[in-house]
Write a structure and sequence with these properties.
Radius of gyration: 23 Å
Bound molecules: 2-acetamido-2-deoxy-beta-D-glucopyranose
Number of strands: 30
Strand order of the largest sheet: 13-15-18-21-23-24-22-19-16
CATH topology of one domain: Pectate Lyase C-like
Distance between the termini: 72 Å
CATH class of one domain: Mainly Beta
GO biological process, one term: cell wall organization
Largest sheet: 9 strands, parallel, barrel
Number of helices: 4
Structural class: mainly beta
Strand content: over 45%
Shape: elongated
Protein name: galacturonan 1,4-alpha-galacturonidase
Organism: Dactylellina haptotyla (strain CBS 200.50)
Catalytic activity: [(1->4)-alpha-D-galacturonosyl](n) + H2O = alpha-D-galacturonate + [(1->4)-alpha-D-galacturonosyl](n-1)
Subcellular location: Secreted
Helix content: under 10%
CATH superfamily of one domain: Single-stranded right-handed beta-helix, Pectin lyase-like
Length: about 450
Amino acid sequence: MFSKLIAPAFAVLAAISILVDAARTHNGHTTADRPKIVPFPYTTGKKFYDSPRRTRHCFVDALGNGQDDSDNILAAAKSCNNGGTIALLDDLYLIGKALDLTFLNHVDFDIQGTLKFIPDVAYWEANSFKFTFQGANTMILFGGEDINIFGSGKGTIDGSGQTWWDGYATNSSIYRPMMVGVSGMKGGTWSGLKMQNPPNWFQWVTDSNDIIYDNMNLQVFSMNKNSPKNTDGWDSYRSDNIIVQNSVVNNTDDCFSWKPNSTNIVVQNNQCTGSHGMSIGSLGQYQGVYDLVENVLIYNTTMTNVGSAARIKVYPDVNPNVPNNGASGGGIGMVNNITYDGMHINSADWAIELTQCYGQSNQTICSAYPSKLVITDVMFKNFDGVASKKYDPKVATLVCSSPLVCQCIHTKNINVKPPSGKPAQHVCKNLYRGFLEGLNCVDS
Ligand SMILES: *[C@@H]1O[C@H](CO)[C@@H](O)[C@H](O)[C@H]1NC(C)=O
Ligand SMILES: *[C@@H]1O[C@H](CO)[C@@H](O)[C@H](O)[C@H]1NC(C)=O
Ligand SMILES: *[C@@H]1O[C@H](CO)[C@@H](O)[C@H](O)[C@H]1NC(C)=O
Ligand SMILES: *[C@@H]1O[C@H](CO)[C@@H](O)[C@H](O)[C@H]1NC(C)=O
Ligand SMILES: *[C@@H]1O[C@H](CO)[C@@H](O)[C@H](O)[C@H]1NC(C)=O
Ligand SMILES: *[C@@H]1O[C@H](CO)[C@@H](O)[C@H](O)[C@H]1NC(C)=O
């Protein structure tokens, strides 16, 4: 009860109140407790951050009337950095400026309202945070050490994607940012948040480690005939020790996508609807570049109306007789120690799609120039449910470019049926069939 009100430093920041320690309520809203998040049932075997408690709150009052709240959110993040909580308890905050929050250190965000990005296509094209990899660019960036962002089941981040999907319908080069960027985050949790309608991917996680996502709810919905574009749930890059669990994703592209140098990642107890799959890759796209994806467990996933459920896509080497711009295969590296355990399928074109001939539809050429990115120690087990009609009676495809670069690929207890009720068939090429327990291999 002895909370102290510190006068805001600048008049322009009158919408921020900083209350030390005991304060729990502000303008009739009460702060939430930071949830305790534990990896379950599996973990990566590596340590996660044990955050100390925070000792002060910075409450941001939404300006309302269509005004941009981003300056106030930035100022609150600075004021409550190093041991505080930024409390966003009002119904709606608008974000009309690119927010660089990579300076964070021992700080929490208690989000109970909606953070909505203002859909100014030209502004974001000029001001989003740009990364070199695959043109990734984001509207907000979070980074730093020991950061917990929690939505307590009601906090929402809304990308206003409709504007970009509508724009895309007439101009497919429209510049579409990813929504949330996590860059250089060392130790953090994201939980109880709803995310909706990103213009492009939901989140781009780069150069980060020791992060847990729990109880997230990712949704896309269009108000007209223009469908959401490339709405990947998570894309990880140059990142280590990440868990995504107890989450629900309803989107139109990969549920989780492992890009180069993603290691020690456990994705468990999630439900994906509409997606292209739990997708490793594509990898090996750039000639001479080394890509690594290692130590991944995908456990207990429900996949509904998906293109592929378990997916690994790797480029072959390049055909020296064909002009190549250096960006369509020939990469080196390794996909190693990957386990898909427990996939419950309600309609998937492919329950398993493993290809080492990505971007090269001619199998003769793929086999003549096998991939330099080796795939080793992969297990697909405990799959059940029904595939889609698309390739009936085929339900899975495992196509390597050569058995020498595709080793120890195992299957066990694969019980996915085609809708026709015929015996399931599985395409198996250039890999040792002795490890493919329970598959009914066909050549094509
Ligand atoms: C399409 O969008 C791109 C990227 O903003 C822009 O450079 C180009 O001029 C647009 N094309 C048309 C026809 O509007
Ligand atoms: C997924 O989103 C689509 C489009 O908005 C909607 O029709 C469908 O009911 C949703 N499914 C689930 C499981 O949320
Ligand atoms: C990925 O890791 C490998 C091996 O450590 C390294 O050679 C390569 O440069 C890394 N790639 C990127 C994009 O950082
Ligand atoms: C699998 O995940 C679902 C949530 O998607 C959960 O309800 C269920 O208990 C999990 N089952 C196991 C065996 O962990
Ligand atoms: C394989 O990956 C899993 C999941 O990250 C990990 O628990 C296990 O220790 C890894 N195995 C080896 C031999 O590194
Ligand atoms: C695949 O490539 C081989 C070798 O270049 C060629 O002979 C064959 O016709 C190609 N097949 C198809 C279906 O294009």
